[in-house]
Design goal:
alpha/beta, two-stranded antiparallel ribbon, tRNA (guanine-N(1)-)-methyltransferase, 5-stranded parallel β-sheet, binds S-adenosylmethionine, EC 2.1.1.228, Alpha/beta_knot_MTases, elongated, Alpha/beta knot, 7 helices
């Protein structure tokens, strides 16, 4: 059985979108993964098929109605009982490579996409939904966030990447950023590829890559380095 994604959205035409191309697109046509985009509006009960209403307490914008969302969520939970249900929201837990690995190792995922000012909070209290954010910025809708999450998962499914690239050396897998890459031409605008990468000495290359992963992570993402445990940091003078 293929890995399955159910996306709950007001814009089903946005799927598969970019995931219909390249690695993910090929994998979709090979049934390595499958996709359904569920129209949330189909679960609206009134004659206008309303999915949103004004915010309680006042303020700008509209809020997605809990009764409509719950009806849609219940339908998907009943049809896909084994899949974790995520909701894309800037108020969610940050998406990580570890989370992506877990999801890719499972049977698939259901993803609820928000619009407007977001979803009525009671949905999160009443249903088993994990709120997930793709970063500290605000998008206009959850669909692009869902595409990001799915892209990250799909490339890890068996048979999607070539046998030579397992993704295990990539950024965040070890907790650090990956080392930098180079390819021909050997000389470009007066800049050469680091000598060690042309040495053929695999031990030296591995050591150089490890060191660059550490120095680049330390300068670009000190937060990651902190979490990883900065093994190469000099101990305080009193401890030496
Ligand atoms: N009022 C909300 C807030 O300040 O937290 C933002 C709502 S946003 C305009 C509309 C929808 O886009 C959200 O319900 C969510 O589904 C999606 N979205 C926006 N930013 C996101 C992010 N960083 N991660 C995941 N989803 C996001």
């Amino acid at each position: 059985m293929s890995w399955h994604a159910s996306v709950l959205t007001l814009y089903p035409d946005m799927f598969p979108g970019p995931l219909g191309h390249s690695l993910a697109g090929r994998a979709l046509s090979q049934d390595i993964w499958s996709l359904e985009a569920v129209q949330i509006r189909d679960f609206a009960a009134d004659k206008h098929r309303s999915v949103d209403d004004t915010p309680a307490g006042g303020g700008a914008g509209m809020v997605m109605r809990v009764d409509v969302l719950a009806a849609c969520v219940d339908d998907v939970l009943a049809r896909r009982p084994g899949l974790p249900l995520l909701a894309m929201t800037p108020r969610g837990a940050p998406l990580t490579q570890a989370m992506v690995r877990d999801l890719a190792a499972g049977q698939g995922v259901s993803i609820l996409c928000g619009r407007f000012e977001g979803m009525d909070e009671r949905l999160f209290e009443a249903r088993p939904i994990l709120p997930v954010s793709i970063g500290d910025f605000v998008l206009s809708g959850g669909e692009t966030a869902a595409l990001v999450l799915l892209d990250a998962c799909i490339r890890l499914l068996p048979g999607v990447m070539g046998a030579t690239t397992s993704g295990e050396e990539e950024s965040f897998e070890s907790g650090l950023l990956e080392y930098p890459h180079y390819t021909r031409p050997q000389m470009w605008e007066g800049r050469t590829i680091p000598e060690v990468l042309r040495s053929g000495d695999h031990a030296k290359i591995a050591a150089w890559r490890k060191q660059r992963a550490e120095t680049d992570t330390r300068s670009r993402r000190p937060d990651l380095m902190e979490r990883h445990g900065d093994a190469t940091r000099q101990p305080p003078s009193g401890a030496r």
